[in-house]
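Recall the central idea of this unit: under ordinary conditions, the amino acid sequence of a chain determines the structure it adopts. In this exercise we apply that idea directly, starting from the sequence alone.
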Amino acid sequence: MPSMGFCILCVHGLSRLSSRVGPRGSSALTFCFLLLLVLFSCKSVSQSECWRSREALFRSGVQTLPHNAKVHYNYANFLKDQNRKEEAINHYKIVLRLYPKHSSALNNLGTLTSNVTAAEEYYRKALDISPQHSRALFNLGNLLRTQGRNEEAEVSLKESLLHGPYFADAYSSLGSLLADQKRHEEAKEVYLAGIKNCPESSDLQNNYGVFLVDIGSPQKAVSHYLLALRLRPNHHVAMLNLGRLYRSLNQNSEAGKWYKKALQISRDIDVITPLGALYYNTGQYNEALGLYKEAMALHPHSVQIRLSLVSGGLPDTKL
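Accordingly, the structure predicted from this sequence is:
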């Protein structure tokens, strides 16, 4: 509506001017008006190219406002989502040159950095600027855990949940950390708190199911795997976990059903090989061989799959 009103005013103004300047002036006005119309139309066509894709839009923002930290940050996030790490790192660094206190750019740089020392430094710089940055606390906690610094990791993950109580991934990480230390009751409390605060998280339901299997409660795990699938029907990891669970209970028919469902969604090696092992162990050798060959095509240098092709079987492994 504002654009329509602007057009009406322009035409009305042109009409009023034409009536005052006479025929010759009117022709000149009309020519100028048409020239402006053509120029604006060309500009509109040129601008419309920026809307053809998200990347074109972000790149246009960077070209138009090269000294704006926000447009570089948005473009870097897009590049990170596209797994174009080096380009993303470059734009995050530009963000920090323009605005050194951008804590989220520091945090994201940490996630893209392969050097663990540099990554920790980025996370800690982000937390110096924003001590309540729940994602930086979460990422730092996970990094510390990989280094065996479990006490520090626990503190960081708990702080992450303190400042971000609806952050499902932090519940999963903390629950897993506690479970690894055989602190099962504490881990259970963390998982249940996460499920209460993040009822829409399919991954949290799935991870709690894995925890229940690990502590010897496979039947209770089934309901949580099914809840994960209700929340996200294409959650192939939950399907795979159901297959593994039923396989451990010697319910091969039910296990095969879930493996096949997972295979309809993902042809990844971790999905293919368990079904191949099930086929082999139930005497369906041709079906097993076909799946092993497919897995071999995906990972031609895998020693484990080569041994399976030779021996005819693949040991079942835990996801």
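The mean pLDDT is 87.
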